Structures are given as C-alpha cells and as structure tokens.
Amino acid sequence: MTTYSAPSTLTPILTRGWGEDRSWTLESYRSRGGYEGLARANTMTAAEIIDVVKAAGLRGRGGAGFPTGLKWSFLPPDDGLPRYLVVNSDESEPGACKDVPLLMANPHALVEGVIIGSRALNCHHAFVYLRGEVPHAYRRLLSAIKEAEDAGLLGGLRITAHAGAGAYICGEETALLDSLEGHRGHPRLKPPFPAAEGLYARPTAVNNVETISQVPEIFRESAEWYASMGTEKSKGHGIFSLSGHVAHPGQFEAPFGITMREILDMAGGIRPGHHLKFWTPGGSSSPIFTEAELDVPLDYESVVGAGSMLGTRSLQVFDETTSVVRVVTRWVEFYQHESCGKCTPCREGTYWLKQILLRLERGQGLPGDVDLLEEIAGNIAGRSFCALGDAAATPVRSGIAKFRDEFEAGLTTPARELFPYEASANYQRGGVR
Ligand SMILES: Cc1cc2nc3c(=O)[nH]c(=O)nc-3n(C[C@H](O)[C@H](O)[C@H](O)COP(=O)(O)O)c2cc1C
Ligand code: SF4
Questions:
Q1: Taking CA atoms, which of 6, 41, 349, 363 is between 20 and 30 Å from 166?
Q2: How many alpha carbons fall within 13 Å on the CB side of residue 119?
C-alpha cells in the first residue's frame, strides 16, 4: 500500500487568483500585476526580449519541451513582409486539461504573452487556434482580447482567435496551420519548419497556450527569478493536471522536479479505500508508470530517464479496480478516431489495434493476439508521418510490458468480469462514489 508524505511547495503563478471573483477580467488581472511585464518588455528591443526568454530557460509546454527563446530566434531576419505568432490551443489529448482552465480563469496572461511574443518576432498579426468544442473558452478569450484592445494595450497588434472544428490532429503544429489556412488539417512534411515557412508560407512561431502565458511573469519578475525554479535543464514551473482515482483531482502549479508522490500527497492520495495501480506522467501518449516511479522527479530529463515522457504533465491516476485492457482500448479508440488518414501505418494500424483490443476486452481474444498487438504497434511507432501514430502505439506497448497477464486473460475472460465497471467509476447517479 502506498504511503504519501513530504508535501512540497506549490508555485501558484499562472493559477494565482483563479479563485477570485471574475478572475478573467482585465481589472482582476491588473490587480495581480497584469500587464506590468508588457510595460517592461516595451522598453526592450526584439532581440533583448528573446534574450530574456532564453535566459529564463522557458521550454515549450505543448509536449516536447523545446526551448522557446531558441524557437523564436529561428525566424529569419525581418524582411518587412508578414510573420506570425500562432498559439496552439487545441488541447485534446486524453488527460490533458490545463489550457482550457487557464483560458477560462486567466485569459489575459495569454493576451499579454501574445503581445510580448509578437514584439519579439516583429509580428503584427497573431492567431490563437482554439479547439472548437470549447466555445466557453473561445468566448472568454474573445472578451479578453476586446478588453485589451479597448484599453489600448495591443499597440497596433491584431489578434485573431480562431475556433477549429475539434480535431486532435489539428494540435500538431503543421496540421494546425493547414486548418487555419482553411484546408483539411493534415500534417505537413518538415522541413521546411514553420519558422521558415509556416502560416501562408511565412515565418511563424507556433507555441502552446501555457508557454505564451508564462512569458509576462518572466518580464514582471526576471529571467533569474524564473530560472531559479525547477531543475538544471527543466527550468521554471508548470501546471500539473491530476485526474482519475484521486481524492482531490485538479491543477497543481509547481516547479519542475516535484514528484508524483508529493502531488498525490497534496491531493489527499488515492480515493479512500483504494490503492494506486498505474498512472501516466504525460497523458495517454506517454508510457505508463506504476508505484515504482512515484519518486521520479517530474522534469523532462528524469521522466525520459525512467522510460516515459513528461508531455503535457497530464497525470492520470488509476487504482486497482481498473482494467488496463479497457483503458488502453479506450485510448486506442481515440487515436483511431482521430487519425487523419494521411499515412498507412497509422490509418490502418490503429484500426487493426482497435479490433484486437475490443475482442480482448470482450474476453474473445484469439491465440497470438497479444504478440500481434505488439507487432502492429511496433510497425506503427517510428514509421508514421507524425507523432500521432507513435502516440497510438505507446499505450499498447507499455500496457503489455507492464500488465501482460491482463491482456492474455482477454483470450478467455471479459474485462468486465475481472474489473467490473461500477467498481472503477468515479461518479454514479446521485454523486461521487
Ligand atoms: C497529434 C499531436 C497533437 C498535438 N496537440 C497539441 C495541442 O493540443 N497543443 C499544443 O500546444 N501542442 C500540441 N502538439 C505539439 C505541437 O505540434 C507543437 O509542438 C507545440 O504546439 C509547440 O509549442 P511549444 O513549443 O510551446 O510547446 C501536438 C502534437 C501532435 C503530434
Ligand atoms: S500518423 Fe496518423 S495522424 Fe499523423 S499523418 Fe499519419 S495518419 Fe495522419
């Protein structure tokens, strides 16, 4: 049985004020120091702004952790023609749930970050591409942009908020650009990278909502302040989204390097009467962890060293009532549904994986099915056009690696007999279990 101790310090910076009345308004944001960072950035040249972001060590929060200042410096010198900052707000990965609450509670942090980022890139028209299934976040962003414009804060910058139709693949930066241009969202061949040829074939920086929302505070405080948090290579802090079988799920903003044990401790541990079975450090596309990895520092390098990926810090928690086969099947159904169909390994392979997983879940697996799953997943990973294919293969491979017996049991026994749905449901008619 897991014991939880050693509470750590949270760093409510982006999440500061989320509980305040109408925290999303300009007035509330200003009361928390909002737009002071912009005032400081306005005294700097574009190159100086990029240097500050580099010195802070800010890394992209969309999953890969690419250094933001470096990405901005990849744009070629200004030739007087358009160049763009595009914010990726397509958040769709199972388990990922930080960008939407951030937009709901603190949209001005993004607007201020967009203004500073646009100054750094000499960009006069920025875009925010939002997942279309969250109209409430879209409306809140529109109202924040309007407030900032009315207050004269945009300084000539135009910000367009664009609602997509709700496709996971449109979170992949080049598919996003295709979609923004009005085409079907298909990933583009790279190179050329967006920095050289992005939106409308012009130099473009694509950044995650949380990445850009981090920028104002770096200018309000300092690069040194930001870099003093986190670990040697994963500087700063981030929002860790805890969901699933925990007593108190939610957003925990903490320095990189915090452990899952500490976060679970602050969340009151696993729901009463149960114990941890497995968890994801970075959502459904990251190899699963178990109790053995509770003390791995949650920074990019340590999580990779332990065999997974930090991704979007989507900490999904599953207790002993959960069927691994069922969870992996739901995830693969998601990837199969979201596959854009451009390349064969992902388009066909995710469909094959789904068919096999569904029969294993029903207890009607065929001899050799588990090996077949591994073989198909092995032929998708590394052979697909974009990372969605790899993401689909990952839970299959890591689920089998850690819980092979449960997949083998699917040859004879339905998952619902081994793990009744009711036991793992967090909610039932009438309230929380
Ligand atoms: C299938 C797929 C979906 C993605 N979805 C998102 C997303 O919803 N939001 C996001 O910021 N990045 C997403 N990414 C990563 C983006 O391609 C890109 O790396 C990111 O927006 C860069 O921003 P950053 O440097 O600030 O992290 C996705 C990547 C893939 C392959
Ligand atoms: S890996 Fe999947 S989502 Fe990516 S291009 Fe191929 S078919 Fe489309």
A1: 349
A2: 28
